[in-house]
Design brief:
By secondary structure, this protein is mainly beta. About 10% of the residues lie in helices and about 50% in strands.
Length: about 180
């Protein structure tokens, strides 16, 4: 996973969006590493995980601007966030997806960002509180059963009535970059 993360060298994190009268849940994983060696010709970087001590080799692709600023001993931080939020949908809303990505400006420390937010507008059918499973219908008319894992999610779902429209947003964000000590 760290190979995929560091190949993109990401700088900022797409946020998990919050809504009034909603249920939200997110998980964030942080990994810190130290640059052990750099081969400028092949753009190969060896990183040592600060927690586990394990080494990882990555190849910094051409999308990594300011590669020449990376130095042995630099601290690298990677943050990955995955989230989900449910809220009441507005009548005019439709399914949507937003992607963001960016990279450091030339001259800044190497870094970039990537993030995605996908919102599905679903019709609420029912909720089985004993099994903690909600049944919803998507925009194609297909029914889906969704396990509701959190207390906040169960409370939100218990208040819904058949036919209510909900917006379910999935977010994912990744950031990796050289950090100051």
């Amino acid at each position: 996973m760290i190979k995929r993360i560091l190949a993109a060298v990401i700088l900022s994190l797409a946020p998990v969006y919050g809504f009034a009268q909603s249920a939200e849940r997110s998980v964030t994983i942080e990994v810190s590493a130290t640059v052990r060696s750099i081969d400028a010709e092949t753009r190969m970087i060896v990183l040592d995980n600060d927690t586990t001590g394990q080494s990882e080799i990555i190849i910094a692709g051409p999308e990594i601007v300011n590669f020449d600023q990376i130095e042995v001993g630099d601290k690298v931080k990677a943050i990955y966030t995955l989230g989900i939020a449910a809220r009441m949908a507005m009548s005019s809303e439709v399914d949507s997806a937003v992607e963001v990505d960016g990279q450091a400006i030339e001259g800044e420390k190497p870094g970039a960002l990537i993030g995605t937010a996908v919102t599905l507008i679903l019709e609420f059918i029912s909720f089985d509180p004993d099994a903690s499973v909600a049944t919803v219908k998507d925009s194609t008319g297909t029914e889906h059963m969704i396990e509701v894992e959190s207390d906040v999610g169960r409370t939100f779902t218990s208040d819904l009535k058949a036919g209510d429209m909900i917006a379910l947003t999935f977010t994912e964000g990744l950031t990796v970059g050289i950090v100051e000590e």
